[in-house]
Write a structure and sequence with these properties.
Blueprint lengths: L3 E2 L1 H12 L3 H9 L6 E3 L5 E5 H13 L6 H12 L4 H43 L2
Antiparallel strand pairs: 1-3, 2-3
Amino acid sequence: MNTQYTITELAREFDVTLDVTPRAIRFYEDQSLLSPSREGSSGLRRVYSGRDRTRLKFTLRGKPLGFTLSEIRELLDVYESPIDTVPQLHAFLATVARHREVLERQLDDLNATLEDLAQYEAQARAAGR
């Protein structure tokens, strides 16, 4: 079955839990994450396929995990490529590993900052006695 969606229908479906607006969907289209067909006499009416809906859902799931839009696009493109699944899996794992490294560095930085703040707080409390 070839299901089609308008931009309003997609926004309504994903707005409930993820605060998605038609403007956000158009932005994802501009970022080459979605590629709706055009209908109507002027060709301005966007029609999204089940593929676009799936790509939007994946994009919305990847954002809270900290993936950039370019990483999400790369993963989507690899996933949809006609090659076998081993290279796809390796590409996915490489992207996840890079992302994990960034998050671990950020966590180390946050922990160091929290330690500094604790020391400053202790010094200020001692000085105030």
